[in-house]
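Narrative of activities, Objective 1.

The group set out to show that a structural description can be obtained from nothing but a protein's sequence at a throughput compatible with the screening campaign. Below is one input-output pair from the validation batch, recorded exactly as produced.
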Amino acid sequence: MRVKVAVPATVANLGAGFDVFAMALQLQNEVSVASNDSGALTIDPGADAPGELCDPERNLVTRAFMHAERALGVEHAGADFTWVTRIPMSRGLGSSAAAALAGVLSAVALHHAPWDEHDVIDCAAALEGHRDNAAAALLGGLAVCAPGAQAVRIDVPDELRAVLFLPEQTLPTQASREVVPRQLSRDDAVFNASRCALFVRALMARDWNSLGVAMEDRWHQAARSALAPHVPRLIEAAREAGAAGAALAGAGPSVIALVTGDHSPVEAAMRDRAAAEGVSGTTLVLPPRNFGARVDVRP
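Output recorded for this entry:
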């Protein structure tokens, strides 16, 4: 049996929605899996991949595959893995969630498991830790993850474009997460809760005039900006150039600006401000993706 899994990039938080929101974008990794009779897992991650990616015990795709097999209670299956990686790693675009989801979906497909989408999200999140990214990657659109409730989604208007500035420097998610305060004042909690409500309303009503306010944050961005000082300056540059809203992309260090119409001025402004700050990087413009991961199974 052969399985091909395509999993999109995702950007979480989007301002005030820390651990709540994530949006799927039109950029994907593709993992191909073929069952074998040896019982072993083999990996071909591509010629330029780091050596540790060839170790099934360290590679997140194969770790997720084995994790899902244990959760399913099925006998381990041998499989040969190959893939095409397009989602930049450690840039806030959900690369680790995409890898974990690809592994879980591969196991579910190869074992003909009866899991529904929420079982898949639970399994991927239990291993990788980011339910918001996993939900958006599986469901597409804007995923909303509320503790104690199943993830839900809404469509993102097609006219939006995500303009991303991706620094050359990476920022490990764990390091970025550790600096986030564990407690909020009541005023800040109300501020962020209100911005989450405004964000959903702005997307559903296509009210781009309120999106900038809706993407403000008083919880995680200031703390994370201590590790990536360019972030507030690029957000400011994007807004001044006409972006409807802008925020840190996931745990960073990338910045995302949401734009309608001509995105060129925003892209140029982010590049220019980054250069002025001495930050090297590239820009990427992506449409939203209102469908999630895709699995193709063949004999």
